[in-house]
Amino acid sequence: MRKFSAVLMCLMLFGSLLAACGGKNNAESQSNNGGAATGNTGGNAAVSEEPTDDITQRKITLKIHYPLPDETTLRAQEDDKIARFQAKYPNVTIVKDDWKYDINEIGVKMASNEAPTFYNTWATEANFLVERGWVADITELWNNWEYKDDINPVLQNQFIVDGKVYGITQNGYITSTVVNKKLLDAKGVTAPALDWTWDDMYNTAKAVADPKKGISGIAPMGKGNEAGWNWTNFLFEAGGDIETTVDGKVTAAFNSEAGVKALDFYKKLKWEANAIPQDWALGWGDAVSSFQQGRTAMVIAGAFDVAQAALNEGGMKPEDVLVYPMPAAEKGGKHYGILGGNYLVINPNATKDEQEMAFRYITFDYFTDDALKSVEDTINARKAEGKYYVPTPLEYFSEDSEYAAKVQAIYDKYDNVYKYDPNLFSLLEGKPEAQFGTQDYYATMSNVVQESFSKKDTDSKKQLDVAAQYVQENYFDKIEQK
């Protein structure tokens, strides 16, 4: 469209053939630079405006990922970021879009060109989005970014596919077990070592459980997709996988010997140890609430969420909230926990200018003094309220970066910052979720978990075979591969 306008201008002004060609070349230059030019060449007034390589001089509109209406605190933080961003880039118009990523909606959003310039997604979605062409390749932008080497590689690697970068990490987690030490002490149970096993978890849960008082030794999630999510940690620890992908075909793999071992362990917690809640149909919020209310000694989730609720809503003390890695199936085994996280990805339908400015917006507060000040302000605000600040175990920055040291220096100044055991991080072993049909698999496994908790003496192998066949026929076989 820019080329057509420039040529038309030349014709209307009866320029020479040379002038017409000059106008055409100038328009091509504008197109290549991706935005409107400003100013004249200074000679013939008929010549198109001179293109500029300065992106800050070109009008750009970003439709940004914006928090949901009920996330008032996050909205206030985002509004502050928008104001600071536009102060630096007054050429950018910001349009707020609170659409939240949904695997069932993203295709329609892309087809109708209604997706934001950038949007949030999860670690599970990388291959799915890349194979469908719904995320931009931002490798060049990434390689030109001065802080790329300071990003947490464990998290960032989830959105590097075939050597190309397709997303930017915001934060992440490795699923952990959080232990209520006060309940252990009340029963005279010694807290297990951080390098613990399934036997240690079983024995601790059995010893602490007091069904008559409504106290469970452990509260595995038993309803919703989170029930399948909780159980999958044990599948990984036993050496199993959710699925395999060979020549583009996705095949269910969780009905393996490892799967049977993991499901049998769940049944032992229920039927032998009597260690799980009598009302075991707990969703994520139910399980976390049970922990913060002192009704279970252990819960499986992202450590930040559990500690935050226990300390600031449950009135628990830091010394009573112990964060453990997931237990190894056997001594010397891996402490696998599901690796998850939040990512921002850029719309491939956006112009090059929009993509670059979206990248600048996403990373605007990364590694900045403003961000450090925000952390310290938040800690002080929590202190004034008599509350604790709970750091996220996995931040976007690498733990050995200079910026991490600055953040840690702030944490060290305050007695209301929750401190993880320093030995924890050497034991955490994150394993990514499945890349295809993850939520469908979780939903199916939730049914298996529920059956296992409600019926004694079920056949684990048969249960898993039925579940695997269902997932294969209804989901995996329908996955379109490119």
TrEMBL record:
Statement: the UniProt record of this protein carries the keyword Nucleotide-binding: no
UniProt entry tagged with the keyword Kinase: no
SUPFAM superfamilies with a match to the protein in the record: Periplasmic binding protein-like II (SSF53850)
Signal sequence range: 1-19
Stored InterPro entries: Bact_solute-bd_prot1 (IPR050490), SBP (IPR006059)
UniProtKB keywords: Signal
One Pfam family named in its UniProt record: SBP_bac_1
Stretch list, region Disordered: 28-52
Name listed for the protein in its UniProt record: Extracellular solute-binding protein
Species assigned in the record: Paenibacillus haidiansis
